[in-house]
Amino acid sequence: MKFLLVFDFDHTIIDENSDTWIVKCAPERKLPNGLRNSYQPGRWTEYMGRVFAYLGDNGVKEDEMKRTMTTIPFTTGMVDLLGFIGENKELFDCIIVSDSNTVFIDWILKAADFHEVFDEVFTNPAAFSSTGYLTVQNFHAHHCAKCPKNLCKRKVLKEFLDKQLERGVSYTQIVYIGDGGNDLCPVMFLKKNDIAMPRQGYTLEKKLSQLAQDLSPVQCSVLVWSSATDIMSYLKLLIKE
């Protein structure tokens, strides 16, 4: 009996968007209008590449970025929740599927000593170049019309589950915890026994309630959370059953 926990990162594990938080490192803590307005829908990763280039051009170094990123607050109750999952790793496999990047997530999890809680992190690959600039790439290519160009979370989840099955691992239940519009695609892939946990008041919750109103609800159960304590209460019930 094993459960798979799938976490989004921004506004789910942390209470902010890591990509917009890094702007605190910019001169006067803001971006020039031309750069801010250069974002095109579905091409966020390319936009962030330009943001990182701007920070590099302005002499923002790796250690300053790291100091800034590790001040991001975790969502209420999340520290306790991750501690609880860490203590029960024999019951829970735990992955992150995020539109952030490997450098930011790595810094934040390691600073709080939570990197051991997660079995795998699926996010856009990032690295510092020889000149000290942070660069980021699209996670993968896909053909899903619903998702941003760089990442279809359903594809990630499906490939992960297929790989686990090859290893002989199948899950009693998948619990998907997220907040954003790009979490809808993987949630629609979940089966009747699985559970989607959208964050209260965020895009995913709104989209799921819209689907229910249109009488085309998702197959899985939906349980809304406002603090990670709600998620922990559910997981405790799950392992008691």
From TrEMBL:
Membrane-traversing stretches: none
GO MF terms, alphabetically ordered: metal ion binding; phosphatase activity
Pfam families: Put_Phosphatase
Domain of life of the organism encoding this protein: Eukaryota
Binding site for substrate: D19, D99
Residues at the catalytic site: D8 (nucleophile), D10 (proton donor)
CC cofactor: Mg(2+)
Amino-acid positions noted as binding Mg(2+) in the UniProt annotation, renumbered to this chain: D8, D10, D179
InterPro entries xref list: HAD-like_sf, HAD_hydro_PyrdxlP_Pase-like, HAD_sf, Pase_PHOSPHO-typ
Record's keyword terms, sorted: Hydrolase, Magnesium, Metal-binding
Family: Belongs to the HAD-like hydrolase superfamily. PHOSPHO family.
Protein name (database record): PHOP2 phosphatase
Organism this protein belongs to: Tyrannus savana (Fork-tailed flycatcher)
Taxonomic lineage: Eukaryota, Metazoa, Chordata, Craniata, Vertebrata
